[in-house]
Specification:
Layout: H1 2-57, H2 64-79, H3 83-104, H4 108-112, H5 114-149, H6 153-159, H7 173-176
Helix pairs in contact: 1-2, 1-5, 2-3
Length: 188
């Protein structure tokens, strides 16, 4: 009987370490998969942007600066590999696309072109998917961090390498700014 108790006392901590380690590995893989899902949507956006730029280039002859900003932001977003730097580059690309869409509103010819409207709708849909993917990624990062940091799991993470803190996908400072709305009624 005492042998079973001793075996249980030795076996239970080992079993706990194994279960904790495996759950950390599982969460880490979910986080990595969520980032890859964002990456798929970003790739789709990167592929759509040149089509939209080339479709509107002729009609927006006075807005070449806006188009060049979009092209430059896309090039930077494609070339960055670090997660934090890439998040910043993608936020910049999102902002320049927003400016492009705003400028496009001033061109009636563009708003009536079905091809351009379809590209704009696909980009908008892709932006929505990116937003949902970012939310899922951040939720998984939060779960992974909690699992790493709570006691006694933090002892397991300190024993084994490979459990680094994943970075959240954060909004850019300009996205956090409260927009000013002028709701006053002006008489003409």
């Amino acid at each position: 009987m005492i042998g079973w108790i001793v075996l249980g006392v030795v076996f239970m901590p080992v079993l706990w370490v194994i279960v904790t380690y495996n759950s950390l590995i599982s969460l880490r893989n979910h986080v990595q998969n969520a980032w890859k899902q964002i990456d798929v949507q970003l790739k789709r956006r990167h592929d759509l942007i040149p089509n939209l730029v080339s479709a509107v280039r002729g009609a927006m002859e006075f807005e070449q600066d806006t188009l060049e900003q979009v092209i430059s932001a896309r090039a930077k977003a494609v070339s960055v590999s670090d997660t934090r730097d890439r998040a910043g580059a993608e936020n910049m690309l999102t902002q320049t696309l927003g400016r492009l869409f705003a400028v496009m509103e001033n061109y009636p010819d563009l708003k009536s072109n079905k091809n351009i409207m379809q590209l704009q709708e696909e980009l908008t849909s892709t932006e929505n998917r990116i937003g949902f993917s970012r939310q899922l990624y951040n939720d998984l990062v939060a779960n992974y961090r909690i699992k790493q940091e709570v006691f006694p799991n933090n002892m397991v993470t300190s024993l084994f390498s490979g459990f680094s803190r994943e970075a959240y996908f954060e909004a850019d400072d300009s996205d956090r700014a409260v927009p000013a709305a002028d709701m006053s009624i002006r008489s003409r």
